[in-house]
Each structure stands twice: as C-alpha cells, then as structure tokens.
C-alpha cells in the first residue's frame, strides 16, 4: 500500500531563516506531487506541483521554492522566511490524475 | 472558469441525526471527478468519497453518500447517523482534467456534531 510521509511535524523558525520541508511517498512510482499551504481556518492554496523528477510548476509567486530530486521525494524550501509564511503545509500525491492523498502535514510558525 | 463553491462556512448537527453539506461547481468539461475530503482536528486530509461525472449513480461509502445533480452542477454530501468523530472541516473538490492532476478546492464547511 502507498504511504506518504512529511517531516518535520512542527517547526518554529525566526523571520529570515531558511526552510526545508520534506515529503516522501512509498509504494508507488512516478506520482504527481503537490505542496499546499493552509492558513488557520481557511482553505487550501496550491503552491507547487510536479509531474516528474526535476519538473516543478509554481502556482503562486512567492519566496518559496520546490524541488524534486528523486521520483518520490518532494522538498519545499525558502532562503529567508517571512511572517506570512506561517501556516500548515500539506504534501499530496496522485497517480490517476484525479484523487489526491495527503500527508500528515507540517505546522510552521515563523516568529 | 472552473470553480468549486461551498456556501456554508459552519454547520452543526446532533449526534445520530443526518446532515447535508452543499457544494456547487462550474466547468465546461464533460469528464470530471468530484470529491469530498474530511479534515479533522489533527488536520490530516482524508478522502471521504469520490464521484465520476459519467456515472449517474450516486456514490456511497457507509454513512456517507452524495447527491450528484449534474445538470444543476451540485454535489452535496449527506452524513447519516452522525457521530462525534465526524466533527471536522469538509472540503469539496473537483478535478476537471489536465495532465498535472490539479484539484480545485472549495473553502470548506466546518461541521460540529453535538452530543
């Protein structure tokens, strides 16, 4: 069966510090991968998606970036965090171009 | 434009009763998929139910069922015999095609099940 992991689960970072969130998927090959951000009490905002290694599409211009160094690994990064980057970050995968399966999420607080 | 709209920000229901969450969507595609996701307080998104647009029969998963009205572009979720564990945010989402597999999400409905 397929599983998706995210780490860390929670993170508190100062403004201006770098960020690296990791997502890995097990039990499937060549998945589509997605990064979402969810502000408190609000819906999901798609940040990045990837249909293959090294292929990244950005939905929202911002100080975040994403990379896919391996087939089942998706990384969300920032060189300098802003207060507005605080939120709940969800990684998801899909194989059939429709339903997506989500990881447990990372709660990021930027102080 | 391809959209998903949830017009009920919050709802409540008594335990063991039935509740219906509303969702409308818009697309010009003929083949698409619709989903309901549940996000409990743990915040992990859980797929509840999916509906293929080409299927006339409404999808059902145990206590969860949908009322899919294709002409009206409506996709409501009915929860029967509500349980305390059903307390969560519920998101309606649509996939309207494209190789990237992007879903379009509604803004969610916060459901509280009261004892």
Give a short overview.
Chain A has 111 residues and is an all-beta fold.
Sequence-ordered SSE layout with sheet pairings:
The complex is a heterodimer of chains A (111) and B (115).
Chain A: E1 3-7, E2 10-13, E3 19-26, E4 32-38, E5 44-52, E6 55-58, E7 64-70, E8 73-78, E9 87-94, E10 101-102, E11 106-110
Parallel strand pairs in A: 2-11
Antiparallel strand pairs in A: 1-3, 3-8, 4-5, 4-9, 5-6, 7-8, 9-10, 9-11
Chain B: E1 3-5, E2 10-14, E3 19-21, E4 24-26, E5 33-39, E6 46-52, E7 60-61, E8 64-69, E9 74-79, E10 88-95, E11 104-105, E12 109-114
Parallel strand pairs in B: 2-12
Antiparallel strand pairs in B: 1-4, 3-9, 5-6, 5-10, 7-8, 8-9, 10-11, 10-12
Quaternary organization = heterodimer
Our estimate of the beta-strand percent of chain A is over 45%
Tell the overall outline of chain B.
globular
H/E series of chain A? EEEEEEEEEEE
Number of strands of chain A: 11
The percent range for strand residues of chain B is over 45%
Q: From the alpha-carbon coordinates, what is the Rg of chain A to the nearest angstrom?
A: 13 Å
Task: Give the H and E element order of chain B.
Answer: EEEEEEEEEEEE
Low-confidence stretches of chain A: none
The overall strand count of chain B is 12
Greatest interface: A-B, 25 and 22 residues
Explain this structure to me?
The complex is a heterodimer of chains A (111) and B (115). Chain A has 111 residues and is mostly beta strands. Chain A is 0% helix and 59% strand. Chain A has no helices and eleven strands. In chain A, strands 2, 4, 5, 6, 9, 10 and 11 form a seven-stranded mixed β-sheet that branches. With 115 residues, chain B is an all-beta fold. In chain B, strand 10 and strand 11 form a beta hairpin. Chains A and B meet through strand 4, strand 5, strand 9 and strand 10 of A and strand 5 and strand 6 of B.
Index terms:
heterodimer; A: 111 residues; seven-stranded mixed beta sheet; four-stranded antiparallel beta sheet; 59% strand; globular; B: 115 residues; mainly beta; six-stranded mixed beta sheet; 0% helix
